[in-house]
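stage 2 :: seqdesign
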């Protein structure tokens, strides 16, 4: 059975062992050469490797190749006595699946206070990250739909303004000639001209109206 990391609170050994064995999070310890020295059941469940497969092996076994540089940085910080809290990164399971994890890493000291390794608590946050990505995608879709609605509304306003102008222009001419016809002061030639202008503008408006898109049923 794995020994509990040395930096855990000083409870009775059997209590510490029970905590480590029954934890939902992976609890792992390693030396300063990144060689695994303990591996609890949750680590086996999360990463797919048994305790026997990992004890004595490099922790790099579960680190994606492109993230291998992280381990050097982590060890450097541990050597300086730093604690790393809730560091979100990715790790690779035995079956090749890459998962999102949150790591908390602390130095392990011997009886004389010398740092000899690190204890690591790893939490699988894959579902959390998936939910965050889906939420971000949904928010982006909402923003996109809102932008499209704003563009459509602006285009509608511009269209209505254009139509209003196009309708108003012939109406102005029609109304002007109607007033002159009603005055009775127009000569016969001007009466004919007025009727032609009115007829032309009425037909222009009729064509404009026919060209408008039909309203949805």
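stage 2 :: out
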């Amino acid at each position: 059975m794995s020994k509990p990391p040395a930096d855990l609170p000083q409870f009775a050994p059997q209590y510490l062992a029970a905590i480590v064995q029954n934890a939902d999070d992976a609890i792992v310890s390693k030396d300063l050469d990144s060689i695994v020295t303990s591996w609890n059941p949750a680590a086996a469940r999360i990463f797919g490797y048994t305790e026997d497969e990992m004890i004595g092996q490099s922790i790099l076994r579960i680190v994606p190749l492109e993230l291998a540089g992280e381990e050097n940085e982590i060890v450097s910080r541990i050597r300086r006595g730093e604690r790393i809290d809730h560091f979100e990164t990715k790790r690779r399971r035995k079956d090749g699946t890459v998962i999102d994890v949150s790591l908390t890493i602390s130095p392990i000291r011997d009886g004389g206070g010398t740092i000899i390794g690190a204890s690591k608590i790893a939490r699988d946050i894959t579902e959390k990250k998936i939910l965050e990505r889906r939420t971000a995608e949904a928010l982006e879709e909402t923003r996109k739909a809102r932008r499209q609605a704003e563009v459509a509304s602006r285009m509608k306003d511009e269209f209505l303004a254009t139509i209003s102008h196009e309708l108003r222009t012939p109406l102005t001419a029609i109304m002007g000639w109607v007033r002159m016809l009603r005055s009775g002061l127009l000569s016969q030639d001007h009466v004919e001209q007025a009727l032609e202008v009115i007829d032309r503008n009425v037909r222009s408006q009729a064509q404009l109206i026919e060209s408008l898109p039909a309203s949805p049923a």
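stage 3 :: structure notes
- The chain has six helices and five strands.
- The longest strand covers residues 98-109.
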